[in-house]
Amino acid sequence: MKPRASGITIRKPISRTTTIVLGIAVWVVFFLAWHIAVVTESVNTLLVPAPGTVLATIVNLVIEGDFLKDIGISIYRILVSFWLACAVAVPIGILMGTYARTEAFVNSFVSAWRYLPAPAFIPILLMWLGTGEGPKIALLFIGVVFFLITLIMDYTKQVRIELIETSLTLGASENQVLRSVIIPAVMPNIITAMRQMLAVSWTYLVIAEIVASTTGIGAMMMRARRFLHTDEIMAGIVIIGMLGLLFDLLFRWLHRVLFSYLYEQN
């Protein structure tokens, strides 16, 4: 008996238009539910301002305050710390995924650090690096680098062994296999891992910016908390979410540009 067709099929691709429409629809539902909750007084408007109020606050902060400067500083901290984390994690992760001895030597150290909460380092970072940009960037670096190493190691191990064995059989040296086979094969997944961990970096932003900071989105939100300006706090949350979504879309675009062959239709 032929199964009945339905609108929802397991792992069946959908069109780009449908993807965009559904992606927008979920946000419409979210903001509509938020608006209804405020209008019906299901929530305390002092603690949960209406979406329109938050939007007006964002515009006001941009026009009358230094919010654009705060946004720029936060983006700078994210980019610098994440670049440093990638510069460390990519080579170490690839080597760990390629050579068992390297993994045996490094993995126990990396695994232990993954379980240490990054905010626990705030006091010692302040003592070591002072109250400037150092502890903020270091905290964002620590929060990402060890997870990124592990992801890249796991992705490197997934490179098909047939490719490696064939290259060695054809006379390639181990260094040539690493440079010409393993690294090109794992690069699409490395970009994916970077995209995944950049999201984690944004989640640490507010914590990093309450470390003796007077600038950045997190510092603005902490100032707003003192005066119960929940609209400004919500504005900061919305902006962080929007920036995170923008960077995620940029990484998706980069993945498509660099590895277009993965998206070609058979």
Give structural notes.
The protein is an all-alpha fold and 266 residues long. The protein folds into 2 domains: 14-43; 49-263, MetI-like fold. Helix content is 75%, strand content 0%. The chain has 11 helices and no strands. It has helices spanning 16-39, 51-64, 67-98, 100-114, 122-129, 133-157, 161-169, 174-203, 205-208, 217-226, 230-258. Helix 3 (67-98) packs antiparallel against helix 4 (100-114), helix 6 (133-157) crosses helix 8 and helix 7 runs antiparallel to helix 8 (174-203). The chain is globular and about 70 Å long. The protein starts with 15 loop residues before the first helix and ends in an 8-residue tail after the last helix. The model has no long low-confidence stretch (mean pLDDT 90).
Coarse shape: globular
Structural class: mainly alpha
Question: What's the CATH C level of the largest domain?
Answer: Mainly Alpha
Low-confidence stretches: none
CATH superfamily of the largest domain: MetI-like
For the biggest sheet, the summary is: none
Number of helices: 11
State the distance separating the first and last CA atoms: 29 Å
Cα gyration radius (Å):
23 Å
Q: What kind of oligomer do you see?
A: single chain
Task: Quickly give the CATH architecture of the largest domain.
Answer: Orthogonal Bundle
Write down the overall mean pLDDT.
Answer: 90
CATH domain topology of the largest domain: MetI-like fold
